[in-house]
Amino acid sequence: MKNLQEVLMNINPIDETQVEAAQRHLDSLTKPPGSLGKLENIARQVAGITGEIKPVFHKKSVIVMAGDHGVCAEGISAFPQEVTPQMVMNFLSGGAAVNVLARHVGADVVCVDIGVNAELSHPDLVSRKVRMGTANMAVGAAMTREETEQAIMVGAQLVDELVDKGYSLFATGEMGIGNTTASAALLCVLGGISAEEAVGRGTGIDDERLSHKIEVVKRAIAVNAPQVDDPLDVLAKVGGLEIAGLVGVILGAASRRCPVVIDGFISSAAALVASKLVPASIGYMIGSHQSMEQGHALMLGAVGIIPMLHMDMRLGEGTGAVLAFSLIDAAGKIMSEMATFESAGVSRGE
Question: Of 317, 337, 342, 350, which residue is the catalytic one?
Fold first, then answer.
């Protein structure tokens, strides 16, 4: 079984020769250069990731990591913590938004209990619980460093298992009441963003609770003094188990040369941590959408990924990322099915 260092060491930059080959193929197709915009960006990036100009993704998966947050004791969410296990069971029964959209694009939902503060049992649940929720980061570290590394490896090892079963395209999803608070804290520390800019309304809190949430984030950072040059220390002190699991999903996908589509605010917090651990991992991340959560645009900017969609969504679960699967498939079909100037007998422009 691999350890975290082995995963990190196995991540290399995407193949620029394949990016250039994809560009040459795009330029040979019956269209003005660059006229398909972001679809062309996707086609180039996917070629660099997979090493294939015309990739086909036969099996796609959105990995939904679920974990609870001790900081909920501070009253930072509009929803009670018992919603986390309830929503996990909803995912497993196929009734959540991410299930609907995954069915729409032909993807499988893989739901992982990495830190739900309840005993859960279901034949389709991937049970990899590291601990029963994080500690309250407003009074001390959310996790130990060892637990953080263990949670990252849950994600990386799950990707390994899925790749070995034929999956080659991944998306990040999550569930955990309180996780916008942890994500905002990560953005503050790793992105150098103020709490006022980073903290949003999450599940829909009012102005009074928003002000309180900002103060809780400030207190968590002050109490824990996370080391900005040590991403694992930051993640352990003010992160979450499901966020750490998604860091592992992203790094695991990069280590296996698979594209990984980044969802909203929480998934992007995981992407930010991954980017600080291995800058080359950014090349494997595909931005799906820009959420309505206040800090998401700042988070995407801090990572360095550009979203494809602006849908005014703020649900999480992987919903925006799953929608982007259809655009990745579309880019692949452009590469494999569109006629070239030569094959179609069409004159090129000057």
Answer: 317
